[in-house]
């Protein structure tokens, strides 16, 4: 019944007796819900959830008076008026999750649906309801007839307790109020005898928790009060009236004593006590099978928990997180079905060879043993962990070479081996780990060339950190195949040669703004991606959300030579560029101003020459600049940005001047006038001299010409007698002719 162009055909009206219409989990391309559906009056069940509908919910749905279930969730819908709901008196299930209801009086309409059993308005922007004396009685009269057993109002920023009127203690089975701004537990919480699930995590609950809050919660199975500033007054020896399967009390002030009442919960599948500042040793009974079905255990971030952890070969815990505590002793051996094993930031010591005693570990996906006191060589049994996607062994004292079997981890996404004593070359088998998105092996003693196969990670690698090792040789041009790279740190090695001219292949750095890397590329299913990054002169450990925004290139402290490639100026999205402490020459690119988001620029301790480009003053986000110890010259360009840095940023460039260094040599106004007068005088004097010189030369030429001409002619007459007689005869004839012509002329004149 779906026509071309994702249009729902009105031919559905030809089914007048249709009682169930389920179009969920489709993609209708953002069309509106057809109004004609409101004419299908025999419908009892309508499910349009997660189908990419858009726009206003048609009020014609109020004509479906036989409707018992209505699911419009997970679309892009909105409603400014819920009056149509009041006509659906038989409705038992209503799901409008992810619908914009911010302008509706939702509570009054819901209270009129007396048959409603399940209500979901999660992430719907429903407003707080301010209950006043004029409407208070009506609300609670209506609520007395409600039979709601399931309520989901998560992610709505609710603060007011008027929602208490939605439920009755003897009916409610599940209450989901996660991520609101509630400050109090439900007033009658202790009376909810049928309640099985209570989720009030990520609120602002300031209650004092005592045994009285749970007096009659006989049916409670799942309790989540995580991330609330509670005050704990529960006795450690308390015996609860319930048997939980899941207990989430993370960051809820449950310390400082270990809650020994947990021992009574023999059906627990999930236990999360992280971030509660619980101190002291974990009791021995805790590691025995007090809850034989326990599968997920999180004691992390308590900082003061101590003791040793026995071998867990026979425990069926598939996720164990005791990171950021004070546990010591040897690493416990694992159960073959373990999936997540996080023991970082403790004081575990000795070898980790025990992880090879349980083989194969076909389910292990995450192994984090970082920041302990572990020693010895890395085990060579990684082929027995084919599902491993995250491996962090950083900040220990491991030695020896990187085992070649690491290359058998074909779906490995994240590899941390930072800050150990590893040596030797990178095993070529690592090129088989084609899904690596982060490789941090800095701070070791690794040697050899950076292998050309590093470009094999072209589609996935976003963070490549090889700094503080002993790599030598040139930077392979294949590194430019890493088109998604965001952090490239090759600093503090012995690299030589020229910087490749192809860094403009790093497409993630070409554009400013948010990362174009998909979220799932930056975060695996355990949200454990982090990296140690040199930022503004200091080393920071950044988590996923920050890493996603960071773009950095650090090639400092090597032996690189040649010019800085012009291609750097095309990296408009680059945040930090550090090329310091090399032997780079040439000028700073005049297009440096194109790197619009640059916050850190360190070109110090090279052999750069020329002037500082004017474009550098256009780097409005520049926060760290170091051009010291080069051969730069001329005046520092005037800009608010460049003059804001300390003089040390420009030190060691003797020919550089201007603020914040000493002023450049300047000529005063009087000096300029004197210089102009001198120049004018020189110009005028030069012109006069030029004229004198000209006429002098003319006079000399005339005199010389006269002498040569006169004496050349007269001298000839004296020397040659025949020339002299002919000359005098010529002038005699000329004189006679002139005389005769004159006499004739005057006689004719008289006659007239």
Describe what this molecule looks like in 3D:
- With 752 residues, this protein is an alpha/beta fold.
- The chain is built from seven helices and 45 strands.
- The protein has a 24-stranded parallel beta sheet, with no helix packed on it. Strands 16-18-20-22-24-26-28-30-32-34-38-40 form a twelve-stranded parallel beta sheet, with no helix packed on it. It has a three-stranded parallel beta sheet with strand order 42-44-45, with no helix packed on it.
- Strand 35 (530-535) and strand 36 form a beta hairpin.
Radius of gyration: 45 Å
Distance, first to last CA: 135 Å
Structure classification: alpha/beta
* Principal-axis shape: globular
Helical content band: 10-25%
Helix count from the secondary structure assignment: 7
Percent of residues in β-strands: 15-25%
Instruction: List low-pLDDT spans.
Output: 132-136, 518-527, 668-679, 681-695
Residue-averaged pLDDT, rounded? 85
Task: Give the quaternary arrangement of the chains.
Answer: single chain
Number of strands: 45
Main beta sheet strand tally, sense and closure: 24 strands, parallel
